[in-house]
Amino acid sequence: MIRNYFLLAFLGLVSWASLSAQSYLYYINITTGIERSAFDGSNRQVLVPPELVKAQGICLDMTHNKLYWTDWVSDKIQRANLDGSDIEDLVVEGLQLPEGIAIDATNQKMYWVDSGTKKIQRANLDGSNVEDLVTYVLVNLDGIALDVENNKMYWTEWGDGAAIGKIKRANLDGSGIQTLFSLRDALLKGIDLDLERGKMYWTDCGLNTIQRANLDGTEVETLVTVDLSTPNAIVVDKEGKKIYWTDLGLQKIKRANLDGTGAEDIIVTNLETPQGLTLFNCSLQKNADCIPTAAELAEQPPSLQIFPNPADQWLELKQVPINSLLQLFDPQGRLLQQRQIHQPAISLPVGDLPSGIYHLQLIEASQQRSWYRFQKVKR
Length: 379
What we know:
By secondary structure, the protein is mostly beta strands.
């Protein structure tokens, strides 16, 4: 069948991923509320104004297209659409200083830490069925991250009567607590996981460092020690191979390579007490809203030829850059196939595809990305 040939013609099937056109940083700016921007800090947008929220922790549920945050002034957990509309109160009782928050979209749960109640808790995504998972006496709790596939949650804590910063993990129900990292005078804040590479990253605003280690706490590395003044939240862009963090003292959002090299400023103006930080990389998400913009479609290398368009049975590509990666996306923005290109001219069978508008993304060896649109028709 043509479909079978089509499947074999492309190498490296990836299931239900999405386009990488619209990727965003989401962060908390006390002056303006909750903002988002491009990964380079451009195109800043205010999503939720400060009169509606004094957010601390922030996370995304891209399965349901929702933005979640903790409000440590009104002691609430709230959510909204990704554009900040339709704000909902989810948990409004029993909180005293909610901070880090994380989402398990697979099991329809949200997890958070509360430094006032000294608890790690979880609830359904609508705020119902609140559960206490871990309860402390003296410590302060800041960041939380989840490894749902392996039934683990990770968190940062500090204090414990002797200013000892720790990273711990446990099962998602709070059982089986393990201490993975412990350091005197450390004030550990944000934490994020790179499960693909088996690493966890965290910030220490007591010793002003950014560090990482294996998920079991071994092989601790200090990545960044300069141009830091109270680093706070941290997030890993797995595909882009970058770490991003907020810095309360410098009033900046910064980024670096995964090994800490190449640190640079991303946002430095009109930023006050930047707190929570997360990101949405479309190419790693199951979201149909990630479609290439008109500007990206206009950035096609003029030499590349794609014809016929509309296409019935075959799509011809000529003057394709060698060693580039070609990806095909359906009308809903889902990645159907991808293949490495080793010759300048290829023929793609499209006869078995339903009619509609499809997109191709070409990723060159230099990581330059270009978008192409074609229409599939039935003759």
